[in-house]
Amino acid sequence: MQNRHQVHNLIILDESGSMSSIKSLIINGFNELVQSIKSIEKQFPEQEHLISMISFNDLNYNTLHFVDSVNKLDSINDSSYSPASMTPLFDAMGFSISKLKQHLEDKENYSVLVTILTDGEENASKEYTSPAIKNLVNELKQKNWTFTYIGTDHDVESMALQLNIYNTMSFDKNGTDIKRMFDVESKSRVKYSLDIKNGEKNNENFYASIQKNKSKKLGFWKKLIS
Fold this sequence. Notes:
Layout: E1 5-14, H1 23-43, E2 47-56, E3 61-69, H2 89-103, E4 110-118, H3 130-141, E5 145-151, H4 156-162, E6 167-170, H5 175-197, H6 208-225
Parallel strand pairs: 1-2, 1-4, 4-5, 5-6
Antiparallel strand pairs: 2-3
């Protein structure tokens, strides 16, 4: 199909030392997410899904993928994801977002979905500040970019708000809740692609409808067993 709408999936993944305790759960969850993105492209053949995945700590940025076709997606494993050291969140966001922004400068007919996943607040950036990232987010939100922030072990909403990101999701560091988090993430991506197909925008309520539906189901079952 010619002139398919490009959907750029930019995933910025915390690889700092505090992620070690959930390393295997994150690896499994992200590998399932990769399969979900492949399935979404098949479900919406008018869209071309591309992925850029960058993990980070204050030792380096690990570009696992950059504007790669979903057909080229590899699973991450112990060797490609090895948490260590500190969390330069602002620098990682600035590096990753600017890299993709530059790539798209002369492109049209695309959407960008940025997903940040971290278990801690900024503590090691040297090049970017919170106001600088906020300005970058504000600029790109006017250009069909959607930003989401997933986190644990810190005030997720407050941290995201500093960066003008309103699509947030928190999780606890256990297998059940991490599985729940990735499930919501995958279903929200399907809704995102459906909105693109229908010409609708959900820039500021990316997780809202999926989490609301889950809350309704949970409430139903609680009433049923009470």
